[in-house]
Write a structure and sequence with these properties.
mainly alpha; 9 helices
Length: 205
Amino acid sequence: MRTSRLEAFSDGVLAIIITIMVLELAVPEGHDLSALVHETGVGLLTYLLSFVYVGIYWNNHHHMFHLVQRINGGVLWANLALLFSLSLFPFTTAWVDESRFAQTPVVVYGLNLLAASAAYLVLQKVIISQEGPSSPLHAAIGSDVKGKVSTALYLGGVLCAVLISDSGPWIAVGCFVSAAVLWIVPDRRIDRAVREVSVGDGASR
């Protein structure tokens, strides 16, 4: 099977996730900047963080499937597992917002990030297993240092929120923000692999 339908479906789901998150934002009752900051400020910050994460996954997903020619049923199910994890973002983001970064909601949000990271890793593994160790995706990922570091940050953040009652949730949020910043920086490995594949396809024609 070709990847076009999977990519189109995934794009649609991610667009809906972002739409749901923005609809969760509360409109301030006042009509000045102070009302916006005090009534919606926290919601805007949590929305921004989750929006960045959805954007990161969309970007990486888009680049990854430029290196995939065909998919099987295993890839479809692995992709659905990723979309399921991401579809929980509106719920966990809203809970963190409404609780003002309380311990349990921050832990659940971190577990959501950890689940999405694990699902993406599984999707990569299933694709590489289908295409073999010589696949362009396997060569582009390499040792996947960024993936390992971000997973460690998610896990560390969850543990801090669980074990440190007062400042733990804020330390956890710092870990989550750090992981997002890590992935905002463009990953040149996949970009380079996509260009090489594009050049190779052009030469073969």
